[in-house]
Amino acid sequence: MIPRARTLLEVRAELTGPNEPFELVDVEVDGVSFRTWKNAPANLVQILERSRTFADREFIVHEGQRLTFAEHYWQAATMARRLVATGIARGDRVAIAARNLPQGIVTFWGALAAGATVAPLNAWWTSEELAYGLNDSAATVLVVDEERLARLRKQFNNLVHLRHIVVISDDPAHAADLGKPHDVIALRGFQDFLGEIDCTNPVPSLDIGPDHDATIFYTAGTTSKPKGAVATHRNSVVSVMSLAFANRCRDLAAGIDTGTAREVTLLNIPLFHVTGALAGLVAHTASGGALVTMRHFDAGRALALIERERVTTVGGVPTIVQQLLAHPDVKKFDLTSIRSVSYGGAPVPEDLPARVKAALPRAITSNGYGLTETSALVAQISGEDYLAHPTSCGVAVPVCDVCVVPESFDGPEPNPTTLCAPNVAGELWVKGPNVVRGYWRKPQATSQTFSRGWVRTGDIARVSEDGLIYIVERSKDMIIHRGENVYPSMVEVHLSAHPAIAECAVIGLPDEEEGEEVVAVVVLREEGLATIEEIADFLRPRVASFEMPSRFYVRPFALPRNAQLKILKRELRDALVHEDF
Q1: Per-residue pLDDT averaged across 49-55, rounded?
Q2: What DSSP string runs through 470-522?
Q3: Same domain, yes or no, for 324 and 411?
Q4: What are φ and ψ of residue 442, in 5° steps?
Q5: Do 302 and 406 belong together in one domain?
Q6: Domain that holds residue 384
Q7: pLDDT digits (tens, 9 = 90+) for 485-506
Q8: pLDDT one-digit tens code per residue, 90-126
Q9: Counting C-beta atoms within 10 Å of the first and last residue's C-beta, which end of the chain has fewer, N or C?
Q10: What is the DSSP letter of 17?
Q11: What's the Cα-to-Cα distance from 168 to each of 4, 78, 103, 144, rounded to whole Å?
């Protein structure tokens, strides 16, 4: 029997009640009290162990490679023991730099099971950026695909801590091309390193507490170097439970019982993003769902995969959904398996939920909000609620507190006297057991962003009287281009190195196909010192391809700044959008 549709408040109260699957309990961590999920696993390795119950279910589908849960578990257990044999101990860092490959997934779980802290590095970073991530995390083992190996090779002598590189072959039927050996860093192919899979020896028995470090996901903001956000096992499992809660609310509020239905997700978010790793990989490991991955996103191939694999969930960032709906052959494919369209992480066109409903009437559309610093999900809105409030990202999950304070607020934590009134915009703060413990080896940046369990998101938001969150402007001017995070400060530091440039700003402009277009505005020291072509040629080898601006503007006068001399990028953006530059 299909249950009647209920209000979101009714559903939330039912699911979080005593003896219910999402019952809440109070905990204290480092002197700070939180609400959390009573039934959450103690650590991520427990999720891996429980995945054995799914046995012969298909877990990973990637370009002809198929892996069941049982095959994955034993490969991950074997990887854990191989890593321990190389000297990896609890807390040591294991880095991964690769596309969304099955071998990378095995490494992720194997490293966690070995007690290591996993550092997924942005696979599209330049060689210098990859070297920075390896040195900053002090990773001693790196698992990398052949493309990243070739990019990194010229940095080998600059890698201070790295001692082992394990290389994934582009062709699973052949051994990886290791190239020339190195005097200090040992290179081995992935299959050679893994060796014979031992299906009798489970993961090592280690004492992994909820507040031990689990992952370091790199993010960037107003500084030129990325910062590693350190998430504990508690942070991660709470986030996965929050996603399960939000999705269950979504279904029950719509009057749909999908509690026993298996999820098959087309994963378009890179696993080096916290959303891809937690909301994608870890969530499906916990639920028994299947992950369908692609070497690189192509809307036409994605539509074919949805039809062939009977995909139930698609999404990622809004751009992905827009490209699928806009594909000229979209009506030629059977998309009736899709039950859910979920996205977040970027501005959403106001008409997108209605467009999804028109194209996929059986699917429920959801928009979410979260940060690397909050281990992904903080809030979600779905279904009829989303159609009624298409510019909102929803209500916070029960384990998170959110509040809005004036942008000038500089206290250690919000209190009732410092809060903005409902629907008044200010800076959004978030508190919960999903908030990471800080930035890796950056105490000053940590103290500036985290305080007494709260994270200052930097996002400008307003919250309605009924708790709906509306993001007015994203933090730190981050740009979402083709589903990738572009941090303007990282591009600006390279532009500023050009001798002809006095000042510069990189901003994002709305683009229906790309999500946002990367645009650079420069002011020259003297008129005519450099052409746009010369500036572009200077920048191109210094940044990743997705970071490269598609347009450059030379401004004949100084960039607009406030009293604190911060560049007013909102003014620049508005001027370019309205062609009033």
Answers
A1: 97
A2: EEEE-GGG-EEETTEEE-HHHHHHHHTTSTTEEEEEEEEEEETTTEEEEEEEE
A3: yes
A4: -135, 75
A5: yes
A6: 8-14+231-475
A7: 787 877 887 898 899 988 889 9
A8: 999 999 999 999 999 999 999 999 999 999 999 989 8
A9: N
A10: S
A11: 50, 16, 7, 6
